[in-house]
Amino acid sequence: MSSPALSVAFFLLLISSSTLLVASMDCNKGDREALLKIKEGLGNPPQLSTWIPATNCCAWDNLYCDDTGRVYNVYIYNADVTAALPVAFGDLSALQSLSLQDMPGLTGPIPRSFAKLSQLYLLSISNTSITGPVPDFLTSTNLSALTLPSNKLSGPIPPALSRLPYLRYVDLSHNMLSGPIPQGLLHGEYQFLILSNNRLTGAIPSSYGKGDVNTIDLGHNRLTGYPSFLFDRTRPTVKLDLSWNELAFDITKAALPWHLEYLDLSHNRIRGGVPKSLKDLYKLLVLNLTYNELCGEIPTGRAMAYHGAECYLHNKCLCGTPLPPCRH
Predict the structure, then answer these.
(1) Across the strands, what pairs with 222?
(2) CA 195 to CA 21: how far, in whole Å?
(3) Would you report the helix, strand and coil content of the chain in percent, each value rounded to 5?
(4) Per-residue confidence in pLDDT tens, the chain, 328 aa
(5) Cα dist. 200→157, 174, 175, 180, 246 in Å?
């Protein structure tokens, strides 16, 4: 066996030994009690069949323990449940990551007991039927990622979430959230703001024109105004989706970010001409300017050749390649 192969084999042996060591270590008694309450609260689904009393919970499926026997990660997917989100999750005091996905029978609000999870850095609950607000008591956690898409959450996004100093990934899409977008939700590097398919209103806060924002997806809301701060050549933004809103501004002189790969401004009331800055966006894979009030001749040359007529349809009076010629 070659030296690299031996190294890989040795590395895998170390990982396997480490996993066996953790699994063989008896778990924390309080964690085991909380997990059994969670299982009971969910109606004892088959996916948690290994969660058996008087056994080592570090060897159970759907969770991980650290080297001290504390449960730090719980993940449950596609479980056939008809139950409220268990309060007992809040008793897992060492929990750092909680992921609950694809459980349409999971209901109820996010319990206040989650405020006790001071080490929690990832909370991901998606494709469930949980209701109620996005709770402001999550500020007592250590969240860097809050992903709650495709649920039945309602009410405003709490401005208090901006006090989470490490929060850099927020996905609250496909809910029924209303009211304005709070200022300054994101911090740190490589930021994502995904709030599409809600009922949000008002202007986009200027704080999202600062920092290392990779993705802004605010499509299918009721947002208004002119977010000029998002149109800056030096911005690191890769995806910008403002489609299906009520934005009304002149885009003619917009300096679009150089790094854009995805730009959807469709279904608004954007006027003026197609910005010439599009000519320099060689990384742009998706462009959608349809259903606006754009007019005039489409710029040509350089990167414009990559975008077909489907990118410009249903505007006021656009013309020129790739649309029919202008009639002067």
Answers:
(1) 201
(2) 42
(3) 25, 25, 50
(4) 444 443 434 333 443 444 444 445 689 999 999 999 999 999 999 999 999 999 999 999 999 999 999 999 999 999 999 999 999 999 999 999 999 999 999 999 999 999 999 999 999 999 999 999 999 999 999 999 999 999 999 999 999 999 999 999 999 999 999 999 999 999 999 999 999 999 999 999 999 999 999 999 999 999 999 999 999 999 999 999 999 999 999 999 999 999 999 999 999 999 999 999 999 999 999 999 999 999 999 999 999 999 999 999 999 999 999 999 998 6
(5) 9, 11, 10, 6, 11
SS (H, E, C) 47-116: HHCCCCCCCCHHHCCCEEECCCCCEEEEEEECCCCCEECCHHHHHCCCCCEEEEEEECCEECCCCHHHHH
- Residue 294: beta bridge partners? 272
Burial of 310 (0-12, 13-18, 19+ CB in 10 A): exposed
pTM value? 0.91
For residue 124, count other CB atoms closer than 10 A to its CB: 17
| Separation CA 16–CA 77 (nearest Å) | 24
- DSSP H stretches of helix in the chain: 3-24, 29-41
CA separation for the pair 55, 33 (Å, rounded): 11
Which tokens sit at 204? 């986009």
